[in-house]
Specification:
Blueprint lengths: L14 E5 L4 H12 L3 E6 L2 H15 L3 E5 L5 H15 L4 E4 L15 H28 L3 E8 L10 H21 L3 E8 L12 H8 L14 H8 L10 E4 L9
Parallel strand pairs: 1-2, 1-4, 2-3, 4-5, 5-6, 6-7
Amino acid sequence: MRPNTGGGAVLEGKVALVTGGSRGLGREIVLAFARAGADVVITSRKLDSCRELAEHVRAETGRRALPYAAHVGDWEQLDELVEAAYGAFGRVDVLVNNAGIAPLYPSLDQVSETLFDKVVGVNLKGPFRLSALVGGRMAAGDGGSIINISSIAAVRPTPNELPYAAAKAGLNTITAGFAQALGPKVRVNAIMAGPFLTDISRAWDMEAFERDAARFPLRRGGRPEEIVGAALYLAGEASSYTTGAVIAVDGGRSAMTM
């Protein structure tokens, strides 16, 4: 059952760019924004997946959708992505830095430099560059909203995801920094996501996860569509006095003392 997000047409006439937008939480955010009246730029490394979702958006909502393949960890490709978005729509009102990777490794001493650099590149370097490029244009124009999709790993790091946790902690930091740099016309906030049951969770040890999740205040993992309410809030005018905030959407996990 899909929750009632109260989206309406709160983003009518807006343009949203969502990285990692073809699957998981990004896909849910793209669909929610389009249903709320926004045109969307859907980007990930897989163009076919972006095209498929763009067709779905057009058929269901009638909104314009631009599929675009880009590697968020590649500085040059991000410059080209921004040019493509502004070339197609003339503006970007909402940027969602959602793309992220958290590859597995056997032990900390076996984390390769390549793995470390890729994790930091996608989870931190890419959002920094896109926020600078798009945020600068927003600030020079009509303003806008930047939403970074962080993780509770930033505040609850574990040894088996340490490079990812460090990158997400950095993402929380640049959220605060860009909020200062781009105000008052651009708001910059983060959603600190807990464990969501997306396609990525298929690789989890679900028995172990369910034992852990039973300790959460809400006693479960999140459904992908449950990210939508916070994303719509931060994208729209309802959050006009909210910037530099890191909002936990995690079933209460980050509120736990242990």
